[in-house]
Amino acid sequence: MILVGERPLRVEDVVALSRGAARVALDPDPAVRERIRASRRALEDRLREGAPVYGVRTGVGASVHQTLEDAQLEALPQNLLRFHGCGTGRVLEPDEAGAVVATRLASLARGYSGVREVLLERLCELLERRVLPCIPAEGSVGASGDLTPLSYLAALITGEREATLAGVAMPAAEALAAAGLEPLALAPKESLALMNGTSVMTGLGCLAFERALRLARLACALTAVASDVMRGNPAHFDARIAALRPHPGQVLAARWIREDLARGPTDPAPVAARLQDRYSLRCAPQIVGVLLDALRFAREVLEVEIHGVNDNPIVDPARGDVLHGGNFYGGHVGFALDGLKTAVANVADLLDRQLVLLCSRETSGGLPDNLVARQEADRATHHGFKAMQITASALAAEALKAAIPASLFSRSTESHNQDKVSMGTIAARDCLRILELGEHVAAIHALAVCQAVDLRGGEARALRSLELRDSLRKHVPMNVADRRQDLDIEAVVALQRSGRLAGGSPDPAP
């Protein structure tokens, strides 16, 4: 059970909630509940006094100059979510939508947003019963929060648009009814509080963090196996090298590679074919280490954001003040995820470069060109991993292209009110796309090194080499004659994402 309201959530908490792997409840601590109520009372007091409160007694965005009469206050919350129903693109997967709901709940439950307890309880119920909004991925500039995508969460609460129930898409009203929930009418400020925050970029960022960490660990395992099968020099990963330039990520990556190169107690130490390997092997700790350190920074940013109050206006429950500001600006998350996606793209490129070495007799320590295993008279008509190398190269190139920082594309919009924006949600989407590409490069690499382990016929004896080969061979046979390999790639990606590929545990996590 994860309680929201007081204790800061970690990235892992959001990931668990996104997948329904943990339960959630609003913290029952009386102090937490009173802060939520005091914030709502303070907002209502300001409204009774006739004080100008943005998005409640005024229009929104550049329409802030418009003043609403008392009779109009109830209509604005529903109209606000309705006119933002203009998202485009793919619909977020249920676990992605779950991460969005979890991060929005964590922020609002702090008790500084002027929303009612019943709304926070409803968000808990949506996560508990797996009623999740269908959110189009595109349409946020990441500055006045994720207004358009978060409007789909607000709409679900009121019974509008579409939702998934246990992964099945249906009209929102039907999903609520099937889960035993009634649509909830939103009070003044509540649709704005739901929509005016950074929860889409942050939720997606948490999922990206978990996948990037798993990819970093796998990249170290693949590097070790590649070194083993190509008769590389294990001394490149000596702890003394990293200790003399102790970036934490580099130290950890070198340690993982060393551990993955370990052999059985009776196996003799391997003889290196070269004094110095090419950079894609020798410098792997320095390359994967950047990703691990980018993850360390991303965690810090994401966890501040998860626990942060990032809507506008903010209601101070202690003093009763309504504070108008810009905590909805997603610059920190955008910067962290732009950096993370660059580091992921570089790891994808690293693995692609190692694959090139594996596929050439001159650089692989004598492995057959393209890892062709065919021994029969028709050997010349078979091509092994020749096309796999082309695919990996295409994927790596696309990942590198997508790594251009999204935040550089800020533009003025919404009548020049939002005249400087973060593009943080685009950075999050880019990061997930680059991870998808990187995971597929890693899958091709894993198939290649396992092919090489088999081709070495028992010479490749690192424990990780044998474990990885054995776990992969339960699902994909050795390539002994030309055949389609796209299904092999997808099988390995599925193994990696589910944690069933023996690529090592990313422990300790940055």
Structural class: mainly alpha
Count up the helices: 18
Which overall shape is indicated by the principal axes computed on the Cα atoms? elongated
Report the radius of gyration as a whole number of Å. Answer: 26 Å
Question: How big a fraction of the residues is strand?
Answer: 5-15%
How would you explain this protein's 3D organization?
- With 510 residues, this protein is mainly alpha-helical.
- It is 52% helix and 5% strand.
- A hairpin with a 2-residue loop joins strand 6 and strand 7.
- The chain starts with a strand and ends in a 12-residue tail after the last helix.
- The model has no long low-confidence stretch (mean pLDDT 96).
Topology:
Blueprint: E1 2-4, H1 11-18, E2 24-26, H2 30-48, H3 75-83, E3 88-91, H4 94-108, H5 117-128, E4 131-133, E5 136-138, H6 147-158, E6 162-165, E7 168-171, H7 172-178, H8 190-195, H9 199-229, H10 239-243, H11 248-260, H12 279-282, H13 284-307, E8 314-315, E9 322-323, H14 331-358, H15 386-402, H16 424-456, H17 463-473, H18 486-498
Parallel strand pairs: 1-2
Antiparallel strand pairs: 3-5, 4-6, 6-7, 8-9
Helix pairs in contact: 1-4, 1-9, 3-6, 4-5, 4-9, 9-11, 9-13, 9-14, 9-16, 11-13, 13-14, 14-15, 14-16, 15-16, 16-17, 16-18
